[in-house]
Automatic annotation (TrEMBL):
Pathway: Protein modification; protein ubiquitination. Keywords: Membrane, Signal, Transferase, Transmembrane, Transmembrane helix, Ubl conjugation pathway. Residues 569-588 are annotated as: Disordered. This is RING-type E3 ubiquitin transferase. GO terms for molecular function: ubiquitin protein ligase activity. Its main location: membrane. Its EC number is 2.3.2.27. The gene is LOC100821692. One of its GO terms (cellular component) is endomembrane system. Residues 59-277, 297-434, 489-693 form the DUF2921 domain. It comes from Brachypodium distachyon.
Length: 1057
């Protein structure tokens, strides 16, 4: 019994024990796969994890010479663990000499056949990753068991080989523009007594099969490898030998990693391939040993410069602090430097002046094609090692630093990011060592000069060194006088301009901040622009829309930004308020002209000549204008600089004037808040450096800092106007309702189509929650409302939106009440004359004529939009992104239909005019105050748009139209005149129909009564006047009382009793 019980308990505990044994709270086994095991097993990586080496006999046979030269290893397990990252390298170079057995194919069909020399050359790159080191029992050993993975690739873009987190089996991938092969190895690590470490490993690979076709070559099958179901023909081979040799000490002349990949088969074997040579260098996990080249460096840096250094100059503006290594790392590590043409070259040998310094460029013709201008050529600094030198006297920081780095030349057709990750050594690399001192400020490598332009935001964001206080910077303005002359020349006295200055306010320093740097920072933020722009004026033909960035670097004495401290509270805030000067009024200090420096960048091929400008000048807060002198870099062959030297400043063309006009901070609801930029050259016509034409641009609307916090934008102004107009419309409809109650005889002659058009406009926001029904159609399916209607959730907008919705509901209900009364009056009129239904006004023809007119108008508008599409800037993607980041399709016809519904509402009197003609009215169905008021309400937005200086463009919502030809839009300057004229004409037609036709018909009734009686079956008969209450009662009785139909006494006679 006890045994049975114990067996039962054991059966229950067995699953729990299994779960407990698999529980790994420290994730020690995550993400590790043994390269020699199956894909479903965990990787056994690391020097302390057991690893089974199955090919030691082969390793011993092929690596006999390496093992025999090995010395006793004198390091512990920690040193063994450090071998894994130290012996790995990324994107080294590999080469294979000419022979009949190449290693891997390359499919060059990724580039068109006519690309020729313009196509980037494929890059052969190799990456080696150590996966395991057997650190067990180090005492007395001369070798360690190791394993690793070698990836070799040939790729056009230089991205391969891509090494994954686990390595299970060898593989080969071939596709157009790239070939990658991964091989798995295991072997031994040894160290010789002469400062060299050696890896000797045997491996297995998936080798591509070579064809025997002499005409097509060995890789005839490697063409268009992107075809369906393509699989490269491969054979598995375990006869691969890899030998890598590393220096044990890293110095200036001793850092290269060399290797050889060979086949253990004979040349006649199908798996044989010619030897592959690998070249890389020790990486970041190896320590650099300074000191071996001190004498060389000291001798080189003590000599005078053999040429004028236009980058360093006299060294007056160089950094002289103690954090030299931090500064060097932040601004140099793997960043690309532009090569400066050797403008001062006076050699008669062109080859000397066109030479890229000490770099060998014979293998890359793209550098020679620059003709010494080095356009697109860059230098990348890699593996920077910086070691501060001995500290100076007490209290001083280090006097300098020793530096080691690898300089890599990058051709124009090679990607800079890829080049920065390469570790191969060759003619395009230069290993250098030197010193940085607080006297010279930079290492010297004549005669090649290279530099990197630092973006303003990058400059002040990076210029805070860890371990030291943030660096304070100053800016030396050299163009202030020239910019002042530009300002004086451009601002002659004008009475209208003076009046505008007195009425409008422009960005200026806040007068309520005690800290000058904080005030200047806020103003610099307002003057910084990051916004799309369009040509000014707008052309009718298709044009390119650039993205404009104006980054303010310095303003007055401020360089960068100095933002205020967080919001104060309690006593601190009160104290701050007392210390700050008053913000009221305009002081001389806040309107003083300020020096400014900035950088302007423009995207697009159209603006290539002015794509990047360095700017200096002045800003005038009185009129919001910035007057700047611009300098642009000149890309030209070195010999061209000899003829242009007199008109250039340090190789830059500074004969450029830039004026930026900022919108006012006030009246932004009346004046479109767009900035204007004008770029022109001051050079004479015929000068080769003169700009072809003046560049004039207008930005999309911008928002200043204060407006972002509590902005009275056009959206809020239109909301207030909408509240006012809806209130006026409700009042007008209420007067019409009272009017038809008092004059029930005119009630049937009010057009139901007219009321339906108004009800449709009111119902759209109630049904869709948006201001337009068809915007949701354009959004292409369910989802959040389009972004124009996801309004800012501030309290002001929320209140306005609620009030608007309530008023819309009220107007909609009043319109329905009017339609109900008109409908009932027509039913009552039909009951009075059941045998003559033609006497009752009908909206069938009115609807048909109105719908036909609007359909024709909509088709004309669509056709006009289609024709004008050639003159519009069209986005590459026909979609927009809403406030929630979701993409929606944008259909032009849907947007046009939405606009046309608004146009139909503006012309709401059209059905009434048509009905008055068809019904030959001799009464006044509409109260004059009603149709005049509603017409005025509908025309107010057009008047508002017309008063503004430019077509309204909403900058706050993603799907708002870009700048297009304004003459083609509904609410353009033309539409704001034509639509009101048409609406006023309809109102005048209603007035004439109700006033003049009534008098004429009245006189005709008195003199030609008999003729009218003969036409009674076709001409409508006016009902006698009656009280509203009796008439409503008769409507109910007339509908429900069957005696009203047929022969009998007239119902209106009984109503008068």
């Amino acid at each position: 019994m006890k045994a049975t019980t114990l067996q039962f308990i054991g059966a229950l505990l067995l699953p729990l024990l299994a779960v407990a044994s698999s529980f790994d709270p420290f994730h020690r086994n995550d993400g590790r796969t043994d390269p020699m095991m199956g894909s479903g097993q965990q990787q056994q990586q690391g020097p302390f994890i057991p690893h089974e080496y199955l090919r030691f006999a082969e390793v011993k046979r092929h690596c006999r010479s390496v093992l025999s030269a090995g010395a006793e290893l004198k390091f512990d397990a920690n040193r063994a663990a450090a071998l894994m990252p130290e012996l790995s390298f990324v994107k080294g170079d590999w080469t294979q000499g000419p022979g009949s057995a190449p290693l891997i194919p390359f499919d060059g069909t990724d580039m068109p056949s006519d690309a020729g020399a313009g196509a980037p050359a494929p890059l052969p790159l190799a990456t080696f990753v150590m996966t395991h080191v057997d650190a067990a029992g180090l005492r007395g050993k001369t070798a360690l068991n190791v394993s690793g993975v070698l990836g070799v690739a040939v790729s056009r873009n230089g991205t391969g080989p891509e090494m994954g987190p686990s390595y299970v089996s060898p593989e080969l991938k071939v596709w157009p523009g790239s070939t990658e092969m991964k091989m798995l190895f295991e072997g031994v690590y040894t160290e010789t007594g002469d400062g060299e470490s050696v890896l000797c490993m045997v491996g297995n690979a998936m080798l591509p099969k070579r064809a025997d076709d002499a005409a097509a070559g060995p890789w005839g099958w490697a063409k268009h490898t992107d075809r369906n179901n393509f699989q490269p023909p491969v054979r598995r081979d375990e006869g691969v030998l890899l030998v890598l040799r590393y220096p044990t000490t890293m110095t200036l002349t001793n850092r290269a990693v060399r290797g050889e990949l060979t086949s253990t088969h004979g040349k006649s074997d199908a798996a044989y391939f010619d030897a592959v040579h690998l070249l890389s260098q020790l990486g970041a996990y190896s320590n650099y040993k300074f000191g071996s080249e001190d004498e060389l460096v000291s001798k080189a840096c003590s000599q005078d410069r053999p040429y004028h250094d236009d980058v360093i100059g006299d060294g007056g503006g160089l950094y002289r602090g103690g954090s030299l290594c931090g500064i060097l790392d932040m601004f140099s590590s793997e960043d690309a430097f532009a090569v400066v043409p050797n403008r001062d070259c006076n050699s008669t040998d062109d080859a000397v002046c066109k030479r890229l310094g000490p770099f060998e460029t014979d293998d890359d013709k793209s550098i020679d094609e620059t003709d010494g201008g080095f356009k697109g050529v860059s230098i990348v600094m890699q593996d920077i090692r910086c070691e501060p030198t001995t500290a100076g006297p007490a209290g001083e920081r280090s006097a300098g630093a020793k530096v080691s780095a690898v300089f890599r030349a990058v051709p124009p057709r090679e990607h800079r990011y890829t080049a920065a990750k390469r570790s191969g050594l060759g003619g395009m690399t230069l290993i250098a060592v030197g010193q940085i001192t607080r006297v010279d400020g930079a290492a010297q490598y004549p005669p090649l000069t290279f530099r990197r332009a630092v973006h303003p935001s990058e400059l002040w964001n990076r210029f805070g060194v860890s371990g030291g206080a943030p660096l304070s910077m100053t800016y030396e303005y050299t163009k202030a006088k020239q910019a002042g002359e530009f300002l004086t020349r451009s601002e002659p006295f004008n009475l209208g301009t003076a009046m505008a200055k007195s009425l409008l306010s422009y960005p200026r320093k806040p007068g309520n901040l005690a800290d000058e740097s904080n005030a200047l920072s806020m103003l610099a933020d307002d003057l910084t622009l990051h916004v799309p722009a369009v040509p000014d004026p707008l052309p009718r033909e298709r044009f390119e829309r650039p993205f404009l960035q104006l980054e303010v670097l310095s303003l007055g004495p401020l360089v960068g930004r100095n933002y205020p401290a967080p919001v104060f509270s309690g006593e601190e805030q009160a104290k701050r308020g007392k210390e700050a000067p008053s913000a009221s009024g305009t002081t001389t200090e806040t309107t003083a002209v300020l020096n400014v420096s900035a950088e302007l960048t423009l995207s697009g091929d159209t603006y290539a000549n002015v794509s990047t400008l360095s700017l200096e000048g002045v800003y005038n807060p009185v009129d919001g204008r910035m007057y700047l002198i611009g300098c642009r870099a000149i890309d030209a062959p070195w010999r061209a600089f000899s003829s242009l030297a007199s008109s250039l400043e340090d190789g830059m063309d500074c004969s450029i004037e830039v004026r930026v006009d900022y919108p006012p901070t006030t009246a932004q609801w009346l004046i479109n808040p767009t900035a204007k930029v004008r770029i022109s050259s001051t050079r004479e016509s015929g000068d080769p450096l003169r700009l072809d034409a003046t560049t004039a641009l207008q930005t999309l609307p911008i928002i200043y800092r204060e407006q972002r916090q509590d902005i009275l934008s056009r959206r809020s102004v239109e909301g207030i106007l909408r509240v006012a107009t809806l209130g006026a419309a409700i009042g007008a409809e209420f007067t019409q309702l009272m009017y038809i109650k008092a004059h029930t005889d005119v009630m049937p002659y009010v057009s139901l189509v007219m009321l339906g058009v108004q009800a449709l406009g009111y119902s759209m926001p109630l049904i869709t929650g948006a201001e337009a029904l068809f915007a949701r159609i354009a959004a292409a399916g369910a989802g959040p409302a389009p972004p124009s209607y996801v309004v800012d959730k501030s309290q002001l907008y929320w209140v306005i939106d609620c009030v608007v919705k309530i008023l819309i509901l009220g107007a909609f209900l009043l319109t329905l009440r009017l339609a109900q009364k008109v409908w009932r009056s027509r039913i009552r009129m039909l009951t009075r004359s059941p045998l003559e239904p033609g006497r009752v006004p009908s909206d069938r023809k009115v609807f048909l004529y109105s719908f036909s007119a609007h359909l024709l108008g909509f088709m004309v508008i669509l056709l006009g939009r289609y024709v004008s599409a050639l003159g519009r800037p069209v986005r590459a993607e026909a979609s927009y992104m809403d406030a929630r980041g979701r993409s929606h399709a944008l259909r032009q016809w849907a947007v046009t239909l939405e606009e046309y519904v608004g146009l139909a509402q503006d012309l709401f009197l059209l059905p009434q005019v048509i009905g008055n003609v068809l019904w030959r009215i001799s009464c006044r169905p509409l109260k004059k105050s009603y149709y005049v008021s509603v017409t005025a309400v509908r025309l107010l937005p057009h008047l508002y748009d017309y008063v503004r200086q430019a077509p309204a463009i909403n900058p706050y919502f993603a799907e708002e139209y870009e700048f297009v030809n304004a003459s083609l839009d509904f609410y353009s300057a033309f539409g704001d005149v034509a639509i009101p004229l048409a609406a006023v004409a309809l109102a005048a037609a209603v007035y004439v129909q109700q006033r003049w036709n009534y008098k004429i018909i009245s006189r005709t009734v008195k003199t030609q009564q008999k003729k009218l009686q003969h036409l009674g079956s076709r001409v409508y008969e006016r009902l006698p006047s009656m009280s509203s209450g009796n008439f409503e009662a008769e409507l109910v009785a007339g509908v429900n009382d069957g005696t009203a139909i047929g022969i009998g006494p007239r119902r209106d006679a009984s109503l008068t009793s």
